[in-house]
Design brief:
Layout: H1 8-21, E1 25-30, E2 50-56, H2 65-75, H3 77-81, E3 88-94, H4 96-107
Parallel strand pairs: 2-3
Antiparallel strand pairs: 1-2
InterPro entries: BolA, BolA-like_sf
Organism: Dactylellina haptotyla (strain CBS 200.50)
Protein name: BolA protein
Length: 108
Protein backbone atom coordinates (compact mmCIF):
# COMPACT_ATOMS: atom_id res chain seq x y z
CA UNK A 1 0.00 0.00 0.00
CA UNK A 2 1.40 3.39 -1.01
CA UNK A 3 2.04 6.00 1.67
CA UNK A 4 -0.20 9.05 1.67
CA UNK A 5 1.27 12.05 -0.09
CA UNK A 6 2.75 14.86 1.98
CA UNK A 7 1.46 17.32 -0.63
CA UNK A 8 -2.10 16.26 -1.54
CA UNK A 9 -3.22 19.77 -2.58
CA UNK A 10 -0.16 20.26 -4.79
CA UNK A 11 -0.76 16.82 -6.31
CA UNK A 12 -4.39 17.70 -7.01
CA UNK A 13 -3.45 21.04 -8.61
CA UNK A 14 -0.82 19.34 -10.78
CA UNK A 15 -3.29 16.65 -11.88
CA UNK A 16 -6.16 19.04 -12.68
CA UNK A 17 -4.02 21.55 -14.59
CA UNK A 18 -2.21 18.81 -16.51
CA UNK A 19 -5.44 17.04 -17.50
CA UNK A 20 -7.25 20.23 -18.52
CA UNK A 21 -4.48 22.24 -20.18
CA UNK A 22 -1.82 19.74 -21.28
CA UNK A 23 0.89 22.29 -20.46
CA UNK A 24 4.19 22.46 -22.33
CA UNK A 25 5.79 23.58 -19.07
CA UNK A 26 4.31 23.71 -15.59
CA UNK A 27 5.96 24.91 -12.40
CA UNK A 28 4.23 24.87 -9.05
CA UNK A 29 5.57 26.55 -5.93
CA UNK A 30 4.10 26.00 -2.48
CA UNK A 31 4.66 29.34 -0.71
CA UNK A 32 2.48 28.47 2.29
CA UNK A 33 5.39 28.60 4.74
CA UNK A 34 5.89 32.29 3.89
CA UNK A 35 2.35 33.11 5.03
CA UNK A 36 1.79 30.82 8.02
CA UNK A 37 2.23 33.70 10.47
CA UNK A 38 -0.45 35.91 8.85
CA UNK A 39 -3.57 36.50 10.92
CA UNK A 40 -5.99 34.75 8.49
CA UNK A 41 -3.82 31.62 8.70
CA UNK A 42 -3.97 31.33 12.51
CA UNK A 43 -5.56 28.01 13.41
CA UNK A 44 -5.32 26.63 9.86
CA UNK A 45 -3.59 23.27 10.01
CA UNK A 46 -3.08 22.87 6.26
CA UNK A 47 0.47 23.35 5.01
CA UNK A 48 -0.84 23.90 1.48
CA UNK A 49 -2.68 27.21 1.23
CA UNK A 50 -0.56 29.55 -0.94
CA UNK A 51 0.65 28.60 -4.41
CA UNK A 52 2.37 30.16 -7.41
CA UNK A 53 1.75 28.49 -10.76
CA UNK A 54 3.70 29.14 -13.95
CA UNK A 55 1.91 27.48 -16.86
CA UNK A 56 2.72 27.47 -20.56
CA UNK A 57 0.01 25.92 -22.70
CA UNK A 58 -1.38 26.04 -26.23
CA UNK A 59 -4.81 26.15 -24.55
CA UNK A 60 -4.16 29.84 -23.74
CA UNK A 61 -3.78 30.78 -27.41
CA UNK A 62 -6.11 33.66 -28.27
CA UNK A 63 -7.29 34.07 -24.67
CA UNK A 64 -6.87 37.30 -22.73
CA UNK A 65 -5.15 37.07 -19.37
CA UNK A 66 -8.43 37.26 -17.46
CA UNK A 67 -9.90 34.28 -19.32
CA UNK A 68 -6.74 32.24 -18.71
CA UNK A 69 -6.87 32.92 -15.00
CA UNK A 70 -10.60 32.24 -14.80
CA UNK A 71 -10.02 28.84 -16.39
CA UNK A 72 -7.53 27.96 -13.64
CA UNK A 73 -9.84 29.29 -10.90
CA UNK A 74 -12.64 27.20 -12.36
CA UNK A 75 -10.48 24.05 -12.16
CA UNK A 76 -9.75 24.71 -8.49
CA UNK A 77 -12.97 26.41 -7.32
CA UNK A 78 -13.88 23.73 -4.78
CA UNK A 79 -10.40 23.76 -3.23
CA UNK A 80 -10.47 27.57 -3.05
CA UNK A 81 -13.85 27.52 -1.30
CA UNK A 82 -13.08 24.86 1.31
CA UNK A 83 -11.89 25.57 4.84
CA UNK A 84 -8.12 25.01 4.95
CA UNK A 85 -8.00 24.88 1.16
CA UNK A 86 -6.26 27.21 -1.26
CA UNK A 87 -6.14 30.69 0.25
CA UNK A 88 -4.00 32.40 -2.40
CA UNK A 89 -3.13 31.54 -5.97
CA UNK A 90 -0.61 33.55 -7.98
CA UNK A 91 -0.67 32.77 -11.71
CA UNK A 92 1.65 33.32 -14.63
CA UNK A 93 0.05 31.99 -17.81
CA UNK A 94 1.70 32.01 -21.23
CA UNK A 95 1.42 30.50 -24.65
CA UNK A 96 4.49 28.72 -26.04
CA UNK A 97 5.12 31.72 -28.34
CA UNK A 98 4.96 34.13 -25.38
CA UNK A 99 7.37 31.94 -23.43
CA UNK A 100 9.79 31.82 -26.35
CA UNK A 101 9.61 35.59 -26.73
CA UNK A 102 10.33 36.05 -23.02
CA UNK A 103 13.28 33.65 -23.15
CA UNK A 104 14.80 35.57 -26.07
CA UNK A 105 14.30 38.85 -24.21
CA UNK A 106 16.03 37.39 -21.13
CA UNK A 107 19.04 36.39 -23.25
CA UNK A 108 19.58 39.91 -24.58
Amino acid sequence: MAAASNTPMEDLIRRRVTEALNPKTFEIYNDSHKHAHHAPMQGVTSKETHFRLVITSDAFEGQPLRARHQSIYSLLKDEMAMEGGIHALQLKTRTPAEEEKQEKKNQE
